[in-house]
Each structure stands twice: as structure tokens, then as C-alpha cells.
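Table 4 source record.
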Amino acid sequence: MTPEQIKLVRTSFEKLAAIPDQAGEIFYQRLFELHPRARQLFWGNMQHQGKALFLMLELIVKSLDIQDKIVPIIFDLGKRHAMYGVRDRDYQPFEQALIDTLSSISGDDFTQDEREAWSAAFVFLADIMREACAKPAK
């Protein structure tokens, strides 16, 4: 990711961080529309799940300029998600739901450059998580 993309991701994330409950609700509603199978991956309180999602996103967003330091955390996240039943096919709908959530909250202010920056951030994240899923558990 370029420094400009990192800046765009951080700036646009502030809109989500300001309303995490609403953003979580929008995100999961959209994810389940795009990928109904994803619903079976979640149990318990979805409001809590939304908060956990945005706390992890916040950590990743804040760490994008020190990617080498965040890789072990993302790798572990990938391992845990594999144990929960997340498969390779689940990543694309997640990305789309995230982009759609950003677009919904930002409206016309969500630019193509921001969209591309988020896609780059997601590729970084998903590639590490997929690698973790591909490695056998020890």
C-alpha cells in the first residue's frame, strides 16, 4: 500500500469508528445478503460481534504503516477464522460488504480512490489470513 492509500483508509475509517454499532449492523446485514452461508459462521450477540470487528479493523488500520509488525496478529486471526469455518470463498463477500458499508455511511463522499485503497488494504489482510488457513495446525 502507498502512503496515500494508508491515509485514505485511515480518514475514511474515522466515519465508521464514529458509529461502530450502526456500522456493524450495516456490515452484517450486507454480508448476509451477499453471502447467506456466512450467517452460520456467527453465533451469539451480533452487536458484540460488530464491536469486535471494528476494534480489530481499527488496530489494523492504525498499523498499516508498520505492516511487518501487524502480520503475526493477522496470521493468528486467519488461523482462528479457519477454526470457525471461514473458507477462501468467504473473503470476497466480506470485502464487498465492507466496501458497501463504507459507501453507505460515506455516501457520495466515498471516492474511487478510497475504494481502491480499501481494496488494497483488504488484499493485504486477506492474503495473510489465507496463508494462515493453508498452513497445517501445529
